[in-house]
């Protein structure tokens, strides 16, 4: 990026096909959705139903496979590989690295859903059949937002980090990570299709994600500051302010992004600490959280492979498959960014640290905010479930939950600031990765031209603003995102296999080298064991 060591890339290297074709497709589809909302929604819903219902097991299998590969990467011989020079030290402290990693993806969504996602499960027939709300309503949010979703991020982050910092490849694209398996086909039609699909998924996922919580922030502003503007108008203003913040941050390079990320984390954990210690439900939150983690781990394999063959409730189709697909679509941007900032860390440090900071922070958020509101329902008797089932207003439900806290107005303001900061840091990483995708070649140490970065900063904000004018269009674009995840899942698996192949070849060239943190005897013993396996 634009730090002191970065060199701006030339505009001659811009790949206009990869840059403009996916954008043109998204814009054309948006126009069609707006002009023919019912017909387009019907077509996309049918396609999404086929993929989710007929091929739902495909998404579940990919999820289990990628989680298994992440564990293997971390604790096998590959875990010792440093993403960079093998004696290189991490550029960022663990806290700064973790803050940038957590905030580059779905952090705003995590904060949004943490308050009340348990309500969705509490009203689902499948969850009711398992047991009480107390036992299961807090389990599924932890399951759907922790281990398998972060496995998608971390496996790809390691693969991209290895590609960029160890192999020093000058194409920062999805297709390039597949080169060890695809070979010369990477530079042909197949490679181009993979890259077009990746940018298309990035734009579609971005358009829906940044339309999720802006209406919540607009509703809070209307209540707190008594603003007379409509929710749509306020949402657009919020997005424009967010655009200004992340554009300024991005154009100031890693330093700007790291500062903004740390501000996010301070606000985020400050909010969590306030709810935990001031909300009056500390004991209940901790007890229910520990119980939910235990139940999730105890039933993890069952939860990961539940397909509802008789289609009694369609629970996995409505939730688990949807979430896996949604995280897969987001794998185009966030893992590239995580791989970029992980230079100097070993594969093991990246994966274990990623689970610790990324998945750990996610779990803490759902435990504290979710169990606070769950306690208000089950212990204090506030009818949150009834309120949601009667009007279906998730935004109003979250505001009502926050208003049960002491100094609720202050909490609402902090919530707005945190979500704006989360959105800004997420846009930072997406705009940077999209800028990198705009180049045919981009060597390690080169940064996209500032004008290209500025172009993407502006383009990424246009579609979310347009979608705010039509709820049906937003629903359709979300369906496009889920459909896009079907081929993306295959590409993710291909990238993981490519890493294992390429890393194996790399380690053969390290014979006699002592990996960081290992003695010479341990290294030699590992080499002998590898030889015996090969024999």
From TrEMBL:
<dbReference type="Pfam" id="PF02028">
    <property type="entry name" value="BCCT"/>
</dbReference>
<feature type="transmembrane region" description="Helical">
    <location>
        <begin position="321"/>
        <end position="340"/>
    </location>
</feature>
<keyword id="KW-1133">Transmembrane helix</keyword>
<feature type="transmembrane region" description="Helical">
    <location>
        <begin position="56"/>
        <end position="75"/>
    </location>
</feature>
<feature type="compositionally biased region" description="Basic and acidic residues">
    <location>
        <begin position="518"/>
        <end position="535"/>
    </location>
</feature>
<feature type="transmembrane region" description="Helical">
    <location>
        <begin position="352"/>
        <end position="374"/>
    </location>
</feature>
<keyword id="KW-0812">Transmembrane</keyword>
<feature type="transmembrane region" description="Helical">
    <location>
        <begin position="95"/>
        <end position="116"/>
    </location>
</feature>
<feature type="transmembrane region" description="Helical">
    <location>
        <begin position="451"/>
        <end position="470"/>
    </location>
</feature>
<keyword id="KW-0472">Membrane</keyword>
<feature type="region of interest" description="Disordered">
    <location>
        <begin position="515"/>
        <end position="535"/>
    </location>
</feature>
<comment type="similarity">
    <text>Belongs to the BCCT transporter (TC 2.A.15) family.</text>
</comment>
<dbReference type="InterPro" id="IPR000060">
    <property type="entry name" value="BCCT_transptr"/>
</dbReference>
<feature type="transmembrane region" description="Helical">
    <location>
        <begin position="232"/>
        <end position="251"/>
    </location>
</feature>
<feature type="transmembrane region" description="Helical">
    <location>
        <begin position="482"/>
        <end position="500"/>
    </location>
</feature>
<feature type="transmembrane region" description="Helical">
    <location>
        <begin position="193"/>
        <end position="212"/>
    </location>
</feature>
<feature type="transmembrane region" description="Helical">
    <location>
        <begin position="263"/>
        <end position="286"/>
    </location>
</feature>
<protein>
    <submittedName>
        <fullName>Carnitine transporter</fullName>
    </submittedName>
</protein>
<keyword id="KW-1003">Cell membrane</keyword>
<feature type="transmembrane region" description="Helical">
    <location>
        <begin position="410"/>
        <end position="439"/>
    </location>
</feature>
<dbReference type="GO" id="GO:0005886">
    <property type="term" value="C:plasma membrane"/>
</dbReference>
<keyword id="KW-0813">Transport</keyword>
<dbReference type="GO" id="GO:0022857">
    <property type="term" value="F:transmembrane transporter activity"/>
</dbReference>
<feature type="transmembrane region" description="Helical">
    <location>
        <begin position="136"/>
        <end position="164"/>
    </location>
</feature>
<feature type="transmembrane region" description="Helical">
    <location>
        <begin position="14"/>
        <end position="36"/>
    </location>
</feature>
